[in-house]
Amino acid sequence: MGSRPFGIYVHVPWCSSRCGYCDFNTYVPGALESASPNTFVADAIAELGIARDLIGGRAVPVSTVFFGGGTPTLLPADDLVAVLDAIDSQFGLARGAEVTTEANPESVDAKYFDRLRSGGFTRVSLGMQSAASSVLATLDRVHTPGRAVDAARTARASGFDEVSLDLIYGAPGETDEQWRQSIEAALTADPTHISAYSLIVEQGTRMARQVSSGALFPADDDVLAHRYLMADDAFTDAGLEWYEVSNWARGGVDGSSFCRHNMGYWHNDDWWGVGPGAHSHVGNYRWWNHKHPGRCSASLAEGELPIAGSEALTQSDRELEDVMLRLRLAEGLPLDRVNSGQRHRVQELASDGLLDESQLTRGQLVLTRNGRLLADLVVRTLT
Ligand SMILES: C[S@@+](CC[C@H](N)C(=O)[O-])C[C@H]1O[C@@H](n2cnc3c(N)ncnc32)[C@H](O)[C@@H]1O
Ligand code: SF4
């Protein structure tokens, strides 16, 4: 540790209700006998303490913290601040650390944001998804169409300079016009960052069952590609630059509004994941926690980390991951990181218009706009 930036991810596995498209590790309060949101803070603080003891004198200051979920903002703001305080006292927050929480629009208000801001949070990422009520209904979202934009403005008024919105395109039944309205609505909030994800119909979800029974029809790839380009045009016109396939942010010389925590994932830096199902990556090791909150509590009560599995990464694993992750970034991948066996394919991809020719002459692999639409294919071709 210490040779790369160090982040901490805190997974809050609770949501007031379950959205039909979501397969994240999350539970509705009352669904589990052996765990509830009430024990989350004590468990997270215990986990941080054990992690700190294990790391010993090698701890490095924490550059970024990210509370994700689930719905972190289902917990009282004081709970999130208590966990952040524990991170600071156990590890030490680096000066200027980025501290983000994901937030569901219906679960936050001015008082909540004020408490987070005074407690040291610097960034809020709101799950807006859509501005169309029929799309929100298909996604089982419980907030009204305007709620996310209002929440973004409230966060700004509470002193959050960094406000991000998550959008989803390609929900069954969504029209181009509804997507255009969602893009425009998001931009009226003047966010510093937007993530726009193509809806994935995840196996095992309620939405997957609705699709297989014929009750819902997923959007086809051409529709998804068109919606991606609509978003890219609108965000770019509004001064947000793409910096990862699904992410746009205000730029600036220091890339000021990029999500530094997520950049840590894409650069394969070090991070420690706290909470049920959280994944960690430090040096050449990766490990992941038990998904069940009750199972995690039981390990922590024994004074043990709730680790379900781990793996040591070989040099070739790391090189492969580097290609997969960095190719998705606007900064691109240095040509010499591509395995020599695959390097002959680079020129082919550039000739097909998927890699930027002018960047290639500088020894850097950067996706073109068409390349971003086919990013998975480019990655597969080069790995
Ligand atoms: C897992 S959620 C957690 C944050 C918060 N609970 C929320 O719903 O906004 C993080 C983001 O993942 C995205 N997401 C979740 N499931 C998805 C899916 N099946 N396809 C595309 N995006 C998805 C949503 O945009 C969401 O904002
Ligand atoms: S999308 Fe967000 S609110 Fe919905 S179930 Fe998943 S984590 Fe919870």
Could you explain how this protein is built, in words?
The structure is a single chain. The protein contains 15 helices and 14 strands. The protein has 383 residues and is α/β, with parallel strands linked by helices. The protein folds into two domains: 6-265, TIM Barrel (Alpha-Beta Barrel), CATH 3.20.20; 316-382, no CATH class. A hairpin with a 2-residue loop joins strand 10 and strand 11 (285-289). Helix 6 packs parallel to helix 8 (221-237). The model has no long low-confidence stretch (mean pLDDT 95). Iron/sulfur cluster binds next to loops.
Whole-number total of structural domains = 2
| CATH topology category name of the largest domain | TIM Barrel
The largest pleated sheet is described as: 9 strands, mixed
Q: What's the architecture of the largest domain in CATH terms?
A: Alpha-Beta Barrel
User: How many helical stretches?
Assistant: 15
CATH C-level class of the largest domain: Alpha Beta
Alpha carbon gyration radius: 21 Å
N-to-C span: 28 Å
Mean pLDDT: 95
**Residues in helix, %:** 25-40%
| Percentage of residues in strands | 15-25%
Strand order of the largest sheet: 7-8-6-5-4-3-2-1-9
Categorize the overall geometry.
globular
* Uncertain stretches of 5 or more adjacent residues: none
How many strands in all? 14
Bound molecules: S-adenosylmethionine, iron/sulfur cluster
Question: Which class of secondary structure composition applies to the elements?
Answer: alpha/beta
CATH superfamily of the largest domain: Aldolase class I
SSE pattern, N- to C-terminal: EHEHEHEHHEHEHHEEHEEEHEHEHHEHH
